[in-house]
Write a structure and sequence with these properties.
2 copies of one chain form a homodimer. By secondary structure, chain A is mainly α. Helix content of chain A is 62%, strand content 0%. The longest helix of chain A has 34 residues. Chain A is elongated. Chains A and B meet through helix 3, helix 4, helix 5 and helix 6 of A and helix 3, helix 4, helix 5 and helix 6 of B. Chain A binds a DNA duplex through helix 2.
DNA sequence: TTTGACCCTGTAGCTACTACAGGGTCAATG
DNA sequence: CATTGACCCTGTAGTAGCTACAGGGTCAAA
Protein backbone atom coordinates (compact mmCIF):
# COMPACT_ATOMS: atom_id res chain seq x y z
CA UNK A 1 0.00 0.00 0.00
CA UNK A 2 1.01 3.61 -0.20
CA UNK A 3 1.52 3.43 -3.97
CA UNK A 4 -1.12 5.54 -5.68
CA UNK A 5 -3.46 3.68 -7.90
CA UNK A 6 -4.07 5.85 -10.95
CA UNK A 7 -7.72 6.73 -11.44
CA UNK A 8 -9.48 7.17 -14.75
CA UNK A 9 -11.66 10.20 -15.10
CA UNK A 10 -14.73 8.03 -14.58
CA UNK A 11 -13.33 6.69 -11.32
CA UNK A 12 -12.50 10.25 -10.23
CA UNK A 13 -16.03 11.23 -11.03
CA UNK A 14 -17.45 8.41 -8.91
CA UNK A 15 -14.95 9.12 -6.13
CA UNK A 16 -15.79 12.82 -5.87
CA UNK A 17 -19.34 12.97 -7.14
CA UNK A 18 -18.35 15.45 -9.82
CA UNK A 19 -19.51 15.03 -13.40
CA UNK A 20 -16.90 13.85 -15.90
CA UNK A 21 -17.58 16.80 -18.18
CA UNK A 22 -17.20 19.14 -15.23
CA UNK A 23 -13.82 17.65 -14.32
CA UNK A 24 -12.60 18.22 -17.87
CA UNK A 25 -14.05 21.72 -17.71
CA UNK A 26 -12.14 22.47 -14.49
CA UNK A 27 -8.95 21.32 -16.18
CA UNK A 28 -9.65 23.44 -19.23
CA UNK A 29 -10.09 26.60 -17.18
CA UNK A 30 -6.98 25.83 -15.16
CA UNK A 31 -8.69 25.09 -11.85
CA UNK A 32 -7.27 21.59 -11.83
CA UNK A 33 -3.76 20.72 -13.04
CA UNK A 34 -3.58 18.57 -16.18
CA UNK A 35 -2.93 15.04 -14.94
CA UNK A 36 -0.42 12.60 -16.48
CA UNK A 37 -1.73 10.49 -19.35
CA UNK A 38 -1.55 6.79 -20.13
CA UNK A 39 -0.08 5.57 -23.41
CA UNK A 40 -3.56 5.62 -24.87
CA UNK A 41 -3.97 9.25 -23.80
CA UNK A 42 -6.36 8.58 -20.94
CA UNK A 43 -6.11 10.89 -17.94
CA UNK A 44 -4.43 9.03 -15.04
CA UNK A 45 -5.23 10.83 -11.80
CA UNK A 46 -3.25 10.54 -8.60
CA UNK A 47 -4.29 11.40 -5.06
CA UNK A 48 -2.93 14.92 -5.61
CA UNK A 49 -5.58 15.73 -8.17
CA UNK A 50 -8.21 13.92 -6.16
CA UNK A 51 -7.50 16.06 -3.11
CA UNK A 52 -7.67 19.18 -5.20
CA UNK A 53 -10.94 18.13 -6.78
CA UNK A 54 -12.43 17.40 -3.37
CA UNK A 55 -11.34 20.85 -2.25
CA UNK A 56 -13.11 22.31 -5.24
CA UNK A 57 -16.24 20.26 -4.62
CA UNK A 58 -16.49 21.32 -0.99
CA UNK A 59 -15.92 24.98 -1.68
CA UNK A 60 -18.36 24.92 -4.61
CA UNK A 61 -20.92 23.31 -2.32
CA UNK A 62 -20.39 26.23 0.03
CA UNK A 63 -21.23 28.54 -2.85
CA UNK A 64 -17.79 29.98 -3.56
CA UNK A 65 -17.25 31.15 -7.12
CA UNK A 66 -14.62 29.63 -9.35
CA UNK A 67 -12.47 32.73 -8.95
CA UNK A 68 -12.76 32.62 -5.18
CA UNK A 69 -11.77 28.95 -5.24
CA UNK A 70 -8.83 29.77 -7.47
CA UNK A 71 -7.67 32.25 -4.86
CA UNK A 72 -8.24 29.82 -2.01
CA UNK A 73 -6.29 27.09 -3.80
CA UNK A 74 -3.46 29.49 -4.43
CA UNK A 75 -3.32 30.43 -0.76
CA UNK A 76 -3.58 26.81 0.25
CA UNK A 77 -0.63 25.99 -2.00
CA UNK A 78 1.55 28.61 -0.34
CA UNK A 79 1.38 27.15 3.11
CA UNK A 80 3.38 29.90 4.79
CA UNK A 81 1.15 32.80 3.76
CA UNK A 82 -1.02 34.51 6.31
CA UNK A 83 -4.38 32.94 6.98
CA UNK A 84 -6.04 36.34 7.07
CA UNK A 85 -6.65 36.36 3.31
CA UNK A 86 -8.55 33.10 3.59
CA UNK A 87 -10.77 34.47 6.32
CA UNK A 88 -11.28 37.60 4.26
CA UNK A 89 -12.57 35.62 1.27
CA UNK A 90 -14.81 33.52 3.50
CA UNK A 91 -16.16 36.60 5.26
CA UNK A 92 -16.91 38.33 1.96
CA UNK A 93 -18.70 35.26 0.76
CA UNK A 94 -20.69 35.03 3.96
CA UNK A 95 -21.72 38.65 3.54
CA UNK A 96 -22.87 38.02 0.01
CA UNK A 97 -24.79 34.95 1.10
CA UNK A 98 -26.55 36.86 3.86
CA UNK A 99 -27.45 39.61 1.41
CA UNK A 100 -28.93 37.06 -0.98
CA UNK A 101 -30.96 35.54 1.83
CA UNK A 102 -32.31 38.93 2.80
CA UNK A 103 -33.22 39.75 -0.81
CA UNK A 104 -34.96 36.43 -1.29
CA UNK A 105 -36.84 36.86 1.97
CA UNK A 106 -38.26 40.15 0.74
CA UNK A 107 -39.38 38.44 -2.47
CA UNK A 108 -40.89 35.54 -0.57
CA UNK A 109 -42.87 37.88 1.67
CA UNK A 110 -44.16 39.80 -1.33
CA UNK A 111 -45.13 36.64 -3.16
CA UNK A 112 -46.85 35.31 -0.07
CA UNK A 113 -49.02 38.36 0.32
CA UNK A 114 -49.79 38.43 -3.41
CA UNK A 115 -50.90 34.83 -3.31
CA UNK A 116 -52.94 35.46 -0.19
CA UNK A 117 -54.68 38.37 -1.91
CA UNK A 118 -56.08 36.05 -4.58
CA UNK A 119 -59.43 34.52 -3.67
CA UNK A 120 -58.88 31.80 -6.28
CA UNK A 121 -61.12 30.46 -8.97
CA UNK A 122 -61.97 33.86 -10.39
CA UNK A 123 -61.04 34.80 -13.92
CA UNK A 124 -57.74 36.42 -14.78
CA UNK A 125 -59.41 39.72 -15.54
CA UNK A 126 -60.14 40.11 -11.83
CA UNK A 127 -56.96 38.47 -10.59
CA UNK A 128 -55.22 40.49 -7.94
CA UNK A 129 -51.87 38.92 -8.73
CA UNK A 130 -51.94 39.88 -12.40
CA UNK A 131 -53.20 43.31 -11.38
CA UNK A 132 -50.28 43.74 -9.03
CA UNK A 133 -47.88 42.79 -11.81
CA UNK A 134 -49.50 45.16 -14.27
CA UNK A 135 -49.83 48.28 -12.10
CA UNK A 136 -46.86 48.71 -9.78
CA UNK B 1 -54.10 64.44 -24.79
CA UNK B 2 -54.97 60.75 -24.84
CA UNK B 3 -53.02 60.31 -28.07
CA UNK B 4 -50.02 58.12 -27.34
CA UNK B 5 -46.70 59.81 -27.72
CA UNK B 6 -44.36 57.29 -29.36
CA UNK B 7 -41.29 56.56 -27.29
CA UNK B 8 -37.84 55.79 -28.60
CA UNK B 9 -36.09 52.83 -27.07
CA UNK B 10 -33.99 55.21 -24.99
CA UNK B 11 -37.10 56.87 -23.60
CA UNK B 12 -38.61 53.45 -22.86
CA UNK B 13 -35.43 52.53 -21.07
CA UNK B 14 -35.59 55.65 -18.92
CA UNK B 15 -39.32 55.17 -18.31
CA UNK B 16 -39.02 51.59 -17.13
CA UNK B 17 -35.50 51.44 -15.78
CA UNK B 18 -34.63 48.60 -18.14
CA UNK B 19 -31.43 48.62 -20.15
CA UNK B 20 -31.78 49.36 -23.86
CA UNK B 21 -29.93 46.19 -24.79
CA UNK B 22 -32.20 44.21 -22.51
CA UNK B 23 -35.30 45.64 -24.19
CA UNK B 24 -33.98 44.58 -27.58
CA UNK B 25 -33.12 41.20 -26.08
CA UNK B 26 -36.69 40.77 -24.79
CA UNK B 27 -37.99 41.56 -28.25
CA UNK B 28 -35.58 39.09 -29.85
CA UNK B 29 -36.72 36.23 -27.61
CA UNK B 30 -40.37 37.11 -28.19
CA UNK B 31 -41.15 38.34 -24.69
CA UNK B 32 -42.08 41.77 -26.02
CA UNK B 33 -43.95 42.33 -29.29
CA UNK B 34 -41.98 44.04 -32.04
CA UNK B 35 -43.10 47.68 -31.97
CA UNK B 36 -43.91 49.78 -35.04
CA UNK B 37 -40.99 51.57 -36.65
CA UNK B 38 -40.45 55.11 -37.82
CA UNK B 39 -39.43 55.85 -41.40
CA UNK B 40 -35.81 55.76 -40.28
CA UNK B 41 -36.36 52.33 -38.74
CA UNK B 42 -36.33 53.49 -35.12
CA UNK B 43 -38.55 51.54 -32.71
CA UNK B 44 -41.61 53.66 -31.83
CA UNK B 45 -43.15 52.33 -28.64
CA UNK B 46 -46.72 52.91 -27.54
CA UNK B 47 -48.25 52.53 -24.10
CA UNK B 48 -49.09 48.91 -24.95
CA UNK B 49 -45.46 47.91 -25.06
CA UNK B 50 -44.67 50.08 -22.08
CA UNK B 51 -47.26 48.30 -19.97
CA UNK B 52 -45.93 44.96 -21.06
CA UNK B 53 -42.38 45.95 -20.26
CA UNK B 54 -43.41 47.17 -16.83
CA UNK B 55 -45.12 43.84 -16.26
CA UNK B 56 -41.89 42.09 -17.20
CA UNK B 57 -39.82 44.34 -14.96
CA UNK B 58 -42.02 43.74 -11.92
CA UNK B 59 -42.18 40.02 -12.38
CA UNK B 60 -38.42 39.82 -13.03
CA UNK B 61 -37.88 41.82 -9.84
CA UNK B 62 -39.92 39.18 -8.05
CA UNK B 63 -37.51 36.59 -9.41
CA UNK B 64 -39.76 34.90 -11.98
CA UNK B 65 -37.90 33.28 -14.85
CA UNK B 66 -38.41 34.41 -18.42
CA UNK B 67 -40.45 31.28 -19.12
CA UNK B 68 -42.65 31.87 -16.11
CA UNK B 69 -43.21 35.44 -17.23
CA UNK B 70 -44.04 34.22 -20.71
CA UNK B 71 -46.74 32.02 -19.18
CA UNK B 72 -48.03 34.81 -16.96
CA UNK B 73 -48.23 37.21 -19.90
CA UNK B 74 -50.09 34.62 -21.90
CA UNK B 75 -52.60 34.13 -19.09
CA UNK B 76 -52.91 37.85 -18.62
CA UNK B 77 -53.67 38.24 -22.33
CA UNK B 78 -56.51 35.73 -22.15
CA UNK B 79 -58.57 37.60 -19.63
CA UNK B 80 -61.27 34.96 -19.32
CA UNK B 81 -59.00 32.10 -18.30
CA UNK B 82 -59.08 30.80 -14.77
CA UNK B 83 -56.92 32.59 -12.28
CA UNK B 84 -55.85 29.32 -10.72
CA UNK B 85 -52.98 28.88 -13.16
CA UNK B 86 -51.57 32.23 -12.13
CA UNK B 87 -51.69 31.31 -8.47
CA UNK B 88 -50.09 27.98 -9.32
CA UNK B 89 -47.10 29.65 -11.00
CA UNK B 90 -46.74 32.08 -8.14
CA UNK B 91 -46.98 29.32 -5.55
CA UNK B 92 -44.35 27.23 -7.34
CA UNK B 93 -42.08 30.21 -7.48
CA UNK B 94 -42.62 30.93 -3.81
CA UNK B 95 -41.73 27.33 -3.01
CA UNK B 96 -38.53 27.58 -5.01
CA UNK B 97 -37.64 30.84 -3.33
CA UNK B 98 -38.16 29.37 0.12
CA UNK B 99 -36.03 26.38 -0.79
CA UNK B 100 -33.24 28.69 -1.96
CA UNK B 101 -33.43 30.64 1.28
CA UNK B 102 -33.18 27.45 3.31
CA UNK B 103 -30.21 26.23 1.28
CA UNK B 104 -28.40 29.53 1.62
CA UNK B 105 -29.09 29.61 5.35
CA UNK B 106 -27.37 26.25 5.75
CA UNK B 107 -24.37 27.60 3.83
CA UNK B 108 -24.30 30.79 5.86
CA UNK B 109 -24.34 28.83 9.13
CA UNK B 110 -21.52 26.61 7.95
CA UNK B 111 -19.45 29.56 6.81
CA UNK B 112 -20.07 31.34 10.07
CA UNK B 113 -18.79 28.46 12.13
CA UNK B 114 -15.81 27.96 9.82
CA UNK B 115 -14.86 31.60 10.17
CA UNK B 116 -15.34 31.44 13.91
CA UNK B 117 -13.03 28.42 14.07
CA UNK B 118 -10.14 30.46 12.69
CA UNK B 119 -8.07 32.19 15.30
CA UNK B 120 -6.68 34.57 12.69
CA UNK B 121 -3.15 35.63 11.96
CA UNK B 122 -1.79 32.13 11.82
CA UNK B 123 -0.26 30.72 8.68
CA UNK B 124 -2.32 28.89 6.09
CA UNK B 125 -0.70 25.60 6.99
CA UNK B 126 -2.56 25.68 10.31
CA UNK B 127 -5.69 27.34 9.00
CA UNK B 128 -8.84 25.58 10.12
CA UNK B 129 -10.81 26.89 7.17
CA UNK B 130 -8.44 25.48 4.57
CA UNK B 131 -8.27 22.29 6.57
CA UNK B 132 -12.04 22.02 6.52
CA UNK B 133 -12.05 22.54 2.75
CA UNK B 134 -9.32 19.94 2.23
CA UNK B 135 -10.60 17.14 4.45
CA UNK B 136 -14.38 16.84 4.32
C1' DT C 1 -14.13 -11.14 -32.89
C1' DT C 2 -17.53 -8.64 -31.30
C1' DT C 3 -19.88 -6.16 -27.81
C1' DG C 4 -20.34 -2.60 -24.57
C1' DA C 5 -18.37 0.40 -21.49
C1' DC C 6 -15.28 3.58 -21.25
C1' DC C 7 -12.08 7.47 -22.94
C1' DC C 8 -10.64 11.48 -26.21
C1' DT C 9 -11.28 16.38 -28.51
C1' DG C 10 -13.93 20.09 -29.94
C1' DT C 11 -17.94 22.60 -30.26
C1' DA C 12 -22.51 24.20 -29.16
C1' DG C 13 -26.17 24.77 -25.85
C1' DC C 14 -28.25 26.67 -21.45
C1' DT C 15 -29.98 31.61 -18.53
C1' DA C 16 -30.44 36.35 -18.73
C1' DC C 17 -28.19 39.55 -19.97
C1' DT C 18 -24.24 42.94 -21.40
C1' DA C 19 -20.88 44.88 -24.51
C1' DC C 20 -19.08 45.83 -28.39
C1' DA C 21 -18.16 46.88 -33.75
C1' DG C 22 -19.51 49.18 -37.50
C1' DG C 23 -22.71 51.54 -39.33
C1' DG C 24 -27.12 55.16 -40.01
C1' DT C 25 -30.16 59.37 -38.20
C1' DC C 26 -31.27 63.62 -36.25
C1' DA C 27 -31.29 68.18 -34.04
C1' DA C 28 -28.61 71.98 -32.81
C1' DT C 29 -24.67 74.87 -33.50
C1' DG C 30 -21.12 77.66 -36.00
C1' DC D 1 -24.46 74.14 -45.18
C1' DA D 2 -21.17 71.29 -42.62
C1' DT D 3 -20.15 69.41 -38.43
C1' DT D 4 -20.77 67.67 -33.85
C1' DG D 5 -22.67 64.68 -30.49
C1' DA D 6 -26.36 62.10 -28.97
C1' DC D 7 -29.03 58.85 -30.28
C1' DC D 8 -30.59 54.60 -33.11
C1' DC D 9 -29.80 50.14 -35.98
C1' DT D 10 -28.05 45.01 -36.69
C1' DG D 11 -25.30 41.26 -35.59
C1' DT D 12 -22.09 38.90 -32.96
C1' DA D 13 -19.51 37.57 -28.96
C1' DG D 14 -18.75 37.63 -24.13
C1' DT D 15 -20.13 36.52 -19.02
C1' DA D 16 -20.69 31.97 -15.14
C1' DG D 17 -20.65 27.30 -14.63
C1' DC D 18 -21.58 23.94 -16.38
C1' DT D 19 -23.97 20.19 -19.67
C1' DA D 20 -24.62 17.70 -23.93
C1' DC D 21 -23.57 16.18 -27.91
C1' DA D 22 -20.84 14.44 -32.42
C1' DG D 23 -17.48 11.69 -34.09
C1' DG D 24 -13.95 9.26 -33.11
C1' DG D 25 -10.36 5.79 -30.31
C1' DT D 26 -9.40 2.01 -26.42
C1' DC D 27 -9.98 -1.92 -23.70
C1' DA D 28 -11.55 -6.07 -21.25
C1' DA D 29 -14.62 -9.84 -21.21
C1' DA D 30 -17.58 -13.27 -23.53
Amino acid sequence: MGQDQALTIGAMSRATGINIETIRYYERIGLLPAPPRTRSNYRAYTSIEQKRLNFVRRTRNLGFSIDEIRALLCLSDNANTDCREVTEIARNHLGETKRKIADLQVLADELQSLIASCAGGISVVDCRIIEAFAHA
